[in-house]
Amino acid sequence: MIFKRGLEILLDDSHSKLRTTLCGWKTGKYLLIEEPAGRNVREGVSLVARFSHDGCYYGFNVEALGHLPEAHILVLKYPDDIMQSCVRKNSRLEVALPVNIFRGDKPSDALNDALITDLSAGGLNFSCFMSLNVGETVGVVGALEPEHPEMALSFIVRSVKTVGMKYEYGGEFVFSEGSAENALKTKVDRLDHLAHGMIDEDPPPAPSQLAAPVGTRMQFQIGMTKILSALRGSSRKYLFIDTPVEKGKPVIVARGTPIHVKFAALGMGYAFETEIVKQYTSPAALWALSHPGATRSMTLRRNTRLRTLIPSVIETSVGMRDGAIIDLSEVGALFMADGDNHTSDTQVTLNFVLPTGGPVDNIVCQVRNTRNEDGKTYIGLSFIENNPAAIGLIKSYVESCSKFL
What we know:
Layout: E1 8-12, E2 17-26, E3 30-34, E4 46-53, E5 56-68, E6 73-77, E7 83-86, E8 93-103, E9 112-119, E10 123-128, E11 137-141, E12 152-163, E13 166-174, H1 181-195, E14 217-222, E15 225-234, E16 238-242, E17 245-246, E18 249-250, E19 258-265, E20 268-280, E21 286-290, E22 296-299, E23 306-316, E24 319-328, E25 332-338, E26 347-353, E27 359-373, E28 376-383, H2 388-402
Antiparallel strand pairs: 1-2, 1-4, 2-3, 3-6, 4-5, 5-6, 5-7, 8-9, 8-11, 9-10, 10-13, 11-12, 12-13, 14-15, 14-19, 15-16, 16-21, 17-18, 19-20, 20-21, 20-22, 23-24, 23-26, 24-25, 25-28, 26-27, 27-28
């Protein structure tokens, strides 16, 4: 997902260029942006929109659908075709790859554990407990595992940040003639193909922001009645949700009615109080709610979850399917594959090789949920503990990564 709340968007209506901020969206339906200051954009006007994100430049044609006047929001038709031009030389991929870091030209006994969290053909981000200096040349063993577990790569430390007792570094690879550059590029290209189109969660929120990605399902309690809806965006003063529906009809509630809200996101449970400000039927069926003040939270996850990218194969009743594990814990995984084909199976078999080289073969999984989005299928799995050896390998891998997170 290329859209992120808070993105700065430049709108061009052939007469002037207007800067505004993306507040939310509903895929295939609309974008919600702050009304550009100093100009009234009329309904039906065609605009050219441009923005930059994560090293790429995007542009698309869009039509103004109308306004949410009290909320100072302009509603745009969701773009059909988005042109992309990347200025970054290398794709950067989120991984969880345990490695060893060393000073000098060759590996020695003085190896330090580290975790690569971001990898490209040109560089890496990693965490470790070893103190390094910006500009220092350092070696890493394991960046190409399990394909080349013994091969060492060199990189220059370009950035450092202290986080508690550990350090987070950014580095740029230094390649010599006959080095592992081609092997690394092949690995990154293969992972990049798997990652194409994968869902991208919103970044961790600032303390004053709501910790909920766009599309988060929420429970709203109004008096004794509980209803469900999805978050579509937020501005500095308001939250926007799909108009709730009961028995096929939109729910109608008086303005100012207090609402108790609960939702789960990023492994946390949240609750807050708000009230209805406005119910819109056009240009989009939305409720505007007052932005919450204090938000209560509690941890829901009992196990560390790793955002990673591990090539894998899932076996269902209709055959084998290639894909990738993009989220892994000791008790389950999120499997992603191309296409929009759900599985009706309640149990499947998963096969993959951990980045540390350990093969996990024929681990039986319970299917917890499936969904389609942006041309991908996502299958939530929990491991059935009938394979102690495989479960042990997964637990060992997660534990080796979790100390750096």
